[in-house]
Fold this sequence. Notes:
There is one protein chain. This protein has helices spanning 19-25, 30-37, 51-55, 74-86, 95-99, 111-120, 173-189, 255-258, 276-287, 298-310, 315-319, and strands at residues 8-13, 39-42, 62-68, 71-73, 87-93, 136-139, 142-145, 149-154, 164-166, 197-198. It is an alpha/beta fold. It has three domains: 8-102 and 152-198, Rossmann fold, CATH 3.40.50; 110-150, no CATH class; 206-319, no CATH class. The model has no long low-confidence stretch (mean pLDDT 89).
Amino acid sequence: xxxxxxxxxxxxxxxxxxxxxxxxxxxxxxxxxxxxxxxxxxxxxxxxxxxxxxxxxxxxxxxxxxxxxxxxxxxxxxxxxxxxxxxxxxxxxxxxxxxxxxxxxxxxxxxxxxxxxxxxxxxxxxxxxxxxxxxxxxxxxxxxxxxxxxxxxxxxxxxxxxxxxxxxxxxxxxxxxxxxxxxxxxxxxxxxxxxxxxxxxxxxxxxxxxxxxxxxxxxxxxxxxxxxxxxxxxxxxxxxxxxxxxxxxxxxxxxxxxxxxxxxxxxxxxxxxxxxxxxxxxxxxxxxxxxxxxxxxxxxxxxxxxxxxxxxxxxxxxxxxxxxxxxxxxxxxxxxxxxxx
Length: 341
């Protein structure tokens, strides 16, 4: 608690797009309730806080910290350890902190290849000196330093202990407020906190809250959204539109499928699913036309499977768009022999 008796709230932005900060504002008038209950202890996105401020706090000084973003650099990891030490409750806020999300797709390659694309081999660049960031640079005024850029992106819980996870890219306002409300009740009224784990989401797959009709049906290929005009009442997957709802935790209200866009999987694996991508691959195998009973011609079967698989654009990015860091795969082995390090 602070000097005026109000609990302390912190929010930190690691490797992410910054949408989670905006999502916090999307709780609308409830933001006034947050302001009434909490004092900010660290929120560099909206106020001028310094790392040294946090370093000077006693351990456990921050009542709840919303940590969004994956662990991409040494600075991200150092802040994760620091905020864990200074916080009573540490929340992995959003998909990047939870599972690595889009930043973790770089685990499909090397940090050298990433630097090459961003700073060297890119048609929009003007870098005739082929300059790339250096961890240490000596200049006339002294020594400049940058964080170490890691080879492998990690999720927050792969670095420090996490008390709660709020999934989503970004989390939806209703689930954010449900969690904040529970914390406020615990801090101000002595109410019990919910059990550790995923909070503000459902304990069923997203398909269970999707109003689209599901039937037993086989498909021959997959389509990208611009290629078809889907039936508004029928399951998108059964219409050949990639939808990860069957492998994804519910809680968003199936917002994307309801407007004709397949679920991309941002709420993470459904309860009981260890690897979201593997679960989705299994689901797809069950609906391919090649699995139709009575088909015994192996050559034709193989051709149909190849045709269906060829219609899936970017399989790794499709099945592990949000969950690469948390998957069984975690990252690919690369030509330089580097693995999960």
